Structures are given as structure tokens and as C-alpha cells.
Amino acid sequence: MSRIVWIASYPKSGSTWLRVFLTNFGRDGAEPADIDHLDDAEAASSRHLFERTLGIASAGLGSEEIAARRPDVYRALARASDAPLHMKVHDAYTHLPDGRPLLPPEATRAALYVVRNPLDVAAAGAPFIARDLDVVLHIMADEDFVMSPPDPDDPSPHVPHRLFSWSGHVRSWTGCGDFPVHVVRYEDMSARPEEAFTGVVRFLGLPLDAGRIRRAIEHSRFEVLRAQELRHGFRERPDAMHGPFFRKGRVGSWREELSAEQVRRLVGSHRAMMQRFGYLDESGEPR
């Protein structure tokens, strides 16, 4: 059993950037990897992955039945692979009603968890889910929010997956004691990329080759990813998304996009977790 490294995050927190880096680091090519052909192209919530792995149709299954069978998907993938597996996951780290973890520890090697300032997550999240900012703020505070809920008239390419609130999602992964979890801040990936990505490489036990790390960082720059998307699109971009997937990528863009009231609401909902990860200053104001 090869076992899986989960690349986990709340949506629009930077997990795609980390996945691109890992693909570029693994290949160590002269040119950047194609964003449409990453080494871990399927998400843990992929409906096609669920159906292909288990050999069953999901259309007639309810959310609880799908969830109950999802651990079997990941065990089967781990058993079938003779190479390390990296897999994107936006689910919160949850347990099923019978107490089993949704993501089975016996099929898991470790997890990389990307955390990002929720103010920037909100600004990036509105076009991602094609809703206005006030709706996004409500979703980010909803402990029961489920992505891709069942819709028989328009089945999603993803099975239902539960997010919790932004704080709940972060808490679920950073408090997971079932396997090692390495937390990396989006802001550190931006401001101190060599330090942040070297920490990822070290955690995974990969070769600590400084030149290879620098090349992978250069091939994974936001400008490179944005240029690729402008040339040929990005197949992971949701059809309903407004604008490009690689939208701005800047730390602090919330200052131009959120109103003072929206900032107040977000901080009020997530103050403790924002303080924990350095997104508030000593007086409790956003950095």
C-alpha cells in the first residue's frame, strides 16, 4: 500500500499552487508543467473517481450512502498504487456517523494543509462559487455547509463534501491526530517561498536540493500559471466561475474588495483562528 498524501485546504486557499509546485519539483523539467496535466489531477470528491474506483453508478445513491463508501475509494487507490499518491481534498476532516474517518488513516501517509487569511479567501471565493460576497461570508460561517449538494437535474462532477465553517475547516485539519499534518500559510508561500516550499519538501522526505526547489518555485509563479490559463484555459476551473481561476494571487487584495462591514463580520466570526495564524495584529485589527 503506497498511501496518500492529502493536499488539503478550504477552497481558494492555495492548494492548487502547492500542487503545481509539487508537480514541477517532481518532474524537475526545463519548462513549467502544464496546469492541465498535474500529477494529481483528480480531487478526492471527484464523482468520476468514485464511480470508476468502485465500479458503481452514484446517481441513485444518497449523500450518506456516498459518504459511507468514500473510504473504500481511498483504500482501493492506496492498494493499487506502487508510487506515492498526492490528492487534493477540500473536505473538512470529518468522521462518518459510525465513527470511521472519511479519509482512512490506514490509507494515509500524511497531509499538507494550506491556510490563507479568510479575508482574502472571501474575496477570491465570490467569483469561484458565482455568488456575491455577502453570501460567501454566510457560507464561511456555516458549520453545516456542503459543497456540491445532490441535484438530480444537474449532477455535479463532485460528490457532496462537507466544509464546516472556515474556522471549523482549519480546526478539523490542524487538530487531526490520526496522521502527521504539515501546515503552510499561503502568505509565507508568497513572501518567503524558498523557506515555505523547502519546509514542504523536508516534511515529505523528498531530496533537499536547493536548485531544484528554486526551479520548481520559478515554474510555479502566479504569472506563469495565469499565462497558461489565458493561453489554453484550465480544466479544473468550474463552469460557473466568473473570470479566470488564477485571478489575482496577491496577499491583501481584500483591502480593495471588502467593505468595512464585511471585514467586521469575518473577523467577528473567525477571530480566534485568525489570531492563531497571525492574521490579526496585537490590537485585534486585520494585518
Give keywords:
4-stranded parallel β-sheet, Rossmann fold, alpha/beta, about 10% strand, 12 helices, about 290 residues, two-stranded antiparallel sheet
Summarize the structure in short.
The protein has helices at about 15-25, 45-55, 65-80, 120-130, 135-140, 165-175, 185-190, 195-205, 210-220, 220-230, 255, 260-275, and strands at about 5-10, 85-90, 110-115, 145, 160, 180-185.
Question: Helicity, in percent?
Answer: 40-55%
Trace the largest sheet across and list its strands.
2-1-3-6
Task: Report the strand count.
Answer: 6
CATH fold-level label = Rossmann fold
Instruction: Give a short account of the largest sheet.
Output: 4 strands, parallel
Overall pLDDT metric: 92
Secondary structure class reads alpha/beta
Query: What is the CATH superfamily label?
Result: P-loop containing nucleotide triphosphate hydrolases
% residues in beta strands: 5-15%
Uncertain runs: none
Under CATH at level 1, the class stands as Alpha Beta
Please count the helical segments.
12
Total of domains: 1
- Computed Rg: 18 Å
- CATH architecture assignment: 3-Layer(aba) Sandwich
